[in-house]
Specification:
- The structure holds two protein chains of two kinds.
- Chain A has 13 helices and eight strands.
- Chain A is an alpha/beta fold.
- Chain A has an eight-stranded mixed beta sheet with strand order 3-2-4-1-5-6-7-8, with helices on both faces.
- In chain A, a hairpin with a 7-residue loop joins strand 7 and strand 8.
- In chain A, helix 7 packs parallel to helix 8.
- The longest helix of chain A has 17 residues.
- The mean pLDDT of chain A is about 95.
- Chain B is elongated and about 70 Å long.
- Chain B is about 45% helix and about 15% strand.
- Chain B starts with a strand and ends in a 7-residue tail after the last helix.
- In chain B, the strands form two sheets. In chain B, strands 5-4-6-3-7-8-9-10 form an eight-stranded mixed beta sheet, with helices on both faces. In chain B, strands 1-2 form a two-stranded antiparallel sheet.
- In chain B, about 50% of the residues are buried.
- Chain B is built from ten helices and ten strands.
- Chain B is of the alpha/beta class.
- The model of chain B has no long low-confidence stretch (mean pLDDT about 95).
- Classes of the chains: A alpha/beta, B alpha/beta.
- At the A-B interface, helix 3, helix 8 and helix 11 of A face helix 5 and helix 8 of B.
- The structure holds guanosine-5'-triphosphate (2 copies), potassium ion and magnesium ion (2 copies).
Chain lengths: ~300, ~290
């Protein structure tokens, strides 16, 4: 496991391997290798720095210095610390028992919100719920149609209004109202339009929906291939909405996915699910241990 | 300007700012190593070092002249067919902005008197055809569509045929988003290339890879794999209107030689520009909009 980190650490500790004594400096040099691995995995610079400082405290202790296999020790500490930081596991969605629950999906353009709405609806339906999808993206061409097709594929109704005469807030309010009135649905999932965190106007629109519709869960969908900017967008979305969880999409490729650690660090909210494909059954629960291995190039 | 001594702490600050652009550890380390070799322990003026770095990055992204184009003329980066329709293939991973970028390009060309045919060859994603169709209606250009699930190569084929029949100038092929690791889907791209080549000699004349500016180090593998299957001749760097810098195009240019040709700056049809290395590099280190 962790071939490349292990190889680099072994190199950094080579003095020790040929019979020398391992020094604190060797350990610090070794941690430079870890730092490089994290940056190559797209963990943000500041999060990496904080992480390495934290690991250093532990790694320069006697346990590593006197160990027969310092590489294994350091790798173990790094791995464990990554797992700790990305946990604890929490896949819950705050579903209410006797009332309609509302889940709001938010995120940057193209991150995977609409698809993930479909995936969640499918999962919840399988668990015996009656979800309703609400098409609150009145912006992107054919966004409503996209959600409608997805709804058809999984047999879940879609609430929508004429984009020419409605507004995102109205659609959300009316969608929830309809679910409450008819009693046909117990969970409403709001598919909001993609937006940039630096777009004040669109962020204000989202805040208004958040304030007036009061979703039980605001979930941020984050593209697993995101680089250093993940901290900026996640932080701003969280400040605006107090998000309740993160879903990492597009984990089916070969990205190391360091954005997971960045986003967890700056928001403090749990990563709940990962998207592992375009099909609507490609949603999995998030596992910090697997993510830690992946970030370390495992 | 008063000078300062360049020490390791200052070098680390250079490194941090370079990393934050997403150019990656290798490219950032090379720059910092050079600074260390030349200036460590010496008196320097920080602004001047930054100017040197920027100059270097601009050189890298400009290349050796063969890819210079007119900033004001969005047609200039496009390799046009000498005769008959010019075919543009647009590819990339999921959600990066392929369809929107196509609309922007098509609109510009249409406005400039070119006859454009769009090929809705994303027959997979929900409402992808409707999305491109809505754009074509707004632009007022031709579009070729088939039912969902049909072989995308068949759509590309039909679009090329139509283009020849009606003497169109440009065919732009929209493809479904796919991750570069999905070999069967990547093979499908290869098939599209072969089919259009048979229809129109030299096609596709441009193979544009769309990269999302927020993309991290995975962009390298995207560029390399898409190039293997679709021989990318240029990059469209989308979503540069956010706070992401898009620095991943630096190592891609260095290692694979693929130039950035266009940038996307928003969701609207006019939100795009010809890539301008100088503007791009200056924005790399502008942290004004970041908390
Ligand atoms: N490979 C892969 N593709 C995904 C995944 N989730 C979503 N996608 C694809 O990513 C692209 C964008 O997904 P959408 O659901 O349209 O994203 P969005 O966030 O709703 O986009 P906007 O509404 O335009 O902001 C589509 O091609 C999806 O099929 C995933 O987990 N893996
Ligand atoms: N802010 C911003 N958004 C953009 C830009 N280009 C595209 N988008 C948005 O990104 C989202 C995805 O764009 P699409 O054009 O559908 O992307 P795609 O690559 O065709 O997606 P798939 O076909 O699903 O793989 C949409 O919400 C677009 O409006 C850009 O330059 N800036
Ligand atoms: K993206
Ligand atoms: Mg959407
Ligand atoms: Mg598309």
């Amino acid at each position: 496991m962790f071939e490349s980190i292990t190889k680099n650490l072994n190199e950094a500790f080579s003095a020790f391997r040929i019979g020398g004594k391992l020094t604190e400096k060797n350990i610090r040099d070794g941690l430079q290798q870890v730092r490089q691995a994290l940056l190559e995995a797209d963990v943000s610079y500041d999060v990496t720095k904080e992480f390495i400082d934290k690991v250093a405290e532990e790694a320069v202790g006697d346990k590593v210095l006197k160990s027969l296999d310092p590489t294994e020790q350091v790798v173990g500490i790094v791995y464990q610390e990554l797992v700790n930081l990305m946990g604890p596991v929490d896949h819950s969605l705050a579903i209410k028992r006797n009332d309609v629950s509302v889940i709001m999906m938010v995120g940057l353009q193209g991150s995977g919100k609409t698809t993930t709405c479909g995936k969640l609806a499918r999962l919840l339906k399988e668990q015996g719920h009656r979800p309703l999808l609400v098409a609150a993206d009145l912006q992107r061409p054919a966004a409503i149609e996209q959600l409608r097709v997805i709804g058809e594929q999984i047999g879940v109704p879609v609430y929508s209004e004429d984009p020419k005469t409605s507004s995102p807030l109205k659609v959300c309010q009316n969608g929830v109202k309809q679910a409450k009135k008819t009693g046909d649905a117990d969970i409403v999932i709001l598919d909001t339009a993609g937006r940039l965190h630096v777009d004040d106007e669109l962020m204000a629109e989202l805040e208004a929906i958040d304030r007036k519709v009061r979703p039980d869960q605001a979930l941020l969908v984050c593209d697993a291939m995101t680089g250093q900017d993940a901290v900026n967008s996640a932080k701003t979305f969280n400040e605006a909405l107090e998000i309740d969880g993160v879903i990492l999409s597009k984990m089916d490729g070969d990205t190391r996915g360091g954005a997971a650690l960045s986003v967890k660090q700056v928001t403090g909210v749990p990563i709940k699910f990962i998207g592992v494909g375009e099909q609507l059954d490609r949603l999995e629960e998030f596992h910090p241990d697997r993510m830690a291995s992946r970030i370390m190039g495992g | 300007k008063p000078g300062e001594i360049l020490d390791e702490e200052k070098l680390e600050r250079f490194f941090a700012d370079l990393i934050r652009t997403d150019m990656g550890v290798k490219a950032a380390t090379a720059i910092v190593d050079e600074l260390r070799t030349k200036h460590l322990g010496r008196t320097i003026v920080l602004d001047e070092l930054w100017e040197t770095i920027r100059g270097k990055l601009k050189d890298i992204l400009t290349g050796d002249g063969e890819t210079e184009w007119e900033i004001e003329n969005p047609m200039s980066p496009i390799n046009m067919a000498e005769e008959g329709p010019t075919v543009l293939l647009v590819t990339g991973v999921n959600g990066v902005g392929k369809t929107t970028s196509i609309a922007k390009l098509a609109n510009y060309m249409h406005q400039n008197g070119k006859k454009v045919v769009l090929a809705a060859a994303d027959t997979f994603r929900a409402a992808a055809v409707e999305q491109l169709t809505m754009w074509s209606q707004r632009i007022g250009c031709e579009i070729v569509t088939k039912e969902s699930g049909v072989d995308p190569a068949a759509v590309a084929h039909a679009a090329c045929q139509l283009a020849k029949e009606i003497n169109a100038d440009i065919v732009i092929i929209d493809t479904a988003g796919r991750l570069q690791t999905q070999t069967n889907l990547m093979d499908q791209l290869g098939k599209i290339v072969r089919v259009v080549e048979k229809q129109i000699p030299g096609a596709p004349h441009e193979s544009l890879l769309v990269l999302d500016a927020t993309t991290g180090q995975n962009g390298i593998s995207q560029a390399s794999n898409f190039s293997s299957y679709a021989n990318c001749t240029g990059i469209v760097l989308s979503k540069l209107d956010g706070s992401a810098k898009g620095g991943i195009v630096v190592p891609i240019r260095q290692e694979m030689g693929i130039p950035v040709k266009f940038v996307g700056l928003g969701e609207q049809i006019d939100d795009f520009q010809v890539f301008n290395p100088a503007l791009f590099v200056d924005a790399l280190f502008d942290r004004g909009d970041v908390a």
